[in-house]
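step 4 of 6: structure.
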Amino acid sequence: MSIPALRWLDPPAGPAIELLDQTRLPAREEIVTCADVPALIEAIRRLAVRGAPLLGIAGAYGVALAALRGDDVRAAAADLAAARPTAVNLSWGVSRALAAWAAAGGNCAGGAGGGGPAALAEAADIAARDAAASAAMAGHGLALVPPGARILTHCNTGALVSGGEGTAFAIILAAHRAGRLAQLWVDETRPLLQGARLTAYEARRAGLPHAVLADGAAASLMAAGAVDLVLTGADRIAADGSVANKVGTYSLAVLARHHGVPFVVAAPVSTVDLDAPDGAAIPVEQRPATEVITLGGQPIAPDGTDAYNPAFDVTPPSLVTAIVTERGVIQPVTAGNVRVLGGATLLAAPPDAVSDVER
Amino acid sequence: MSIPALRWLDPPAGPAIELLDQTRLPAREEIVTCADVPALIEAIRRLAVRGAPLLGIAGAYGVALAALRGDDVRAAAADLAAARPTAVNLSWGVSRALAAWAAAGGNCAGGAGGGGPAALAEAADIAARDAAASAAMAGHGLALVPPGARILTHCNTGALVSGGEGTAFAIILAAHRAGRLAQLWVDETRPLLQGARLTAYEARRAGLPHAVLADGAAASLMAAGAVDLVLTGADRIAADGSVANKVGTYSLAVLARHHGVPFVVAAPVSTVDLDAPDGAAIPVEQRPATEVITLGGQPIAPDGTDAYNPAFDVTPPSLVTAIVTERGVIQPVTAGNVRVLGGATLLAAPPDAVSDVER
């Protein structure tokens, strides 16, 4: 991306976090500057910054911002982690930066000591590791993409959500560079249209052959034999391999199974939450009805109409062909394989166990 | 409806056809007056008037309008029938009115004789029969609705598409009056949002408990056990029972099967096309990309983005639990049952054969 999704500003311009306001894309490339944690939380809540990996990075930088400003770091961290409930990466990034801050002598009262710079270094490290994870996912995932692939994707999983080229979108870019991408089908992804607005924007910049479709049209594309692979990201993966992702993902998984199309999820291991035993343990954020019954401020349903508006849905592991992580591919998706590979950073699984799964 | 979807105007105000412009709902209740067939065709193409049964009525009135104006009736009829390719009712209504016109002495040169009034009487008869068919479908379909039903519907199938209370929506209204409707789930139905704009408008007027959802959220509703019945209309039904309907319908049928939810279609027998042996024989209208990449004139994807935008999809009979017609219920959906019941008006099947199927 010529304009990064997130950028840290040192003094004298900062300390602050610059965000590309994703609610304005593709019409306008607007920068939002968050000089304190409440501003960052507001940006997270209104989805100016979004996407599981980027939320982890943003959360970590938010802790650094609080520490360097001399704010109450633990309170800021708690508020940040709670800004959105489903993506585990957000609380993971916050926890990582908070731990670095505390280890460097930070304390509750805001006397930063070495805590602020340590939290900042940790945030930068998370961003760099995410970029490396993108590249690794692209490499592992490419093996699952056949020549001449027509790939259907949902929501937005590229550089706008990542320190690198993203999750599912990084694999799509790798397939394009390898000459294997015949067509990218972009689900528009209602209600917030991340596919039409953001993925189409990224696909156009990358020169990919692509077309947008209404989410309801994916089934007929599959019935026509025009989809070889469904490839999405994830916001949280439970210990049994259940995948929480943008609403509509589970619909695609059921449709893919019905049509014999592989359904593959790409996510860094920071997305895996071993504390959630299964899909039922993942909280699904319910968002306001206005997202469904208005569009761009225009009403599209009668005033006051109720809406069912879950931000995410949960796909059971039985419908997931494979999960691509930066450490390898989980296939088949079983609790045992998730624990070995997805939980590697938590469990310090030896590299040979990872290789076992990857084969 | 306090404002009818379609109204015939006699002289001196007419001859003309008044339409409630469905592209303006729910924001505005605007009337469009079509004083000639080209104006009517434009209204049909831009979906100011839409819905399979209403298109049949509109087509028949269009033939009457041409005849009473002294236009070339056969040419007008051919143009009308071709205005939209998928809904068979349109060409059926046109053919019926044209036959009535010809039988009454109409000829190509526009010398109407008794042809004009005969075509007009036929159009009025089609509208009256459609109202009766709505009532009959409501009666037959009610037997398929369990107490406390949570019904999911797609697109718009009420009084806006009918001479009466509609197709699927007539059954929903009957269920409400019978105290059996606990909740109506309204798929917003992208790209043109007929669910959010029109079905929510009709549900609100009728006082139904209802909520709108993004089409991609239907799967998670079903997974949560919150849907007891999926109920839709149809634009064309092939001889084998394949159902062409608004894009997204097939998606719901696959999801319903996966979750063990009945999937029921309601349509008058004029929707059955025995000349189409199966789903592959039904032409599916591809509509402009602008419907997907803009909304209310606002771009929602980068300028020039391609889109896959079929107006309809086709559900195979194996996924359809039952088809409700004004003559009874087709269940199971087999070619034999479709022929006996759905083709009754064409084949003049005896009433006892109809009753056999209905049981």
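step 5 of 6: annotate
 - The CA atoms of residues 56 and 93 of chain B lie 4 Å apart.
 - The first strand of chain B starts at residue 6 and ends at 9.
step 6 of 6: archive
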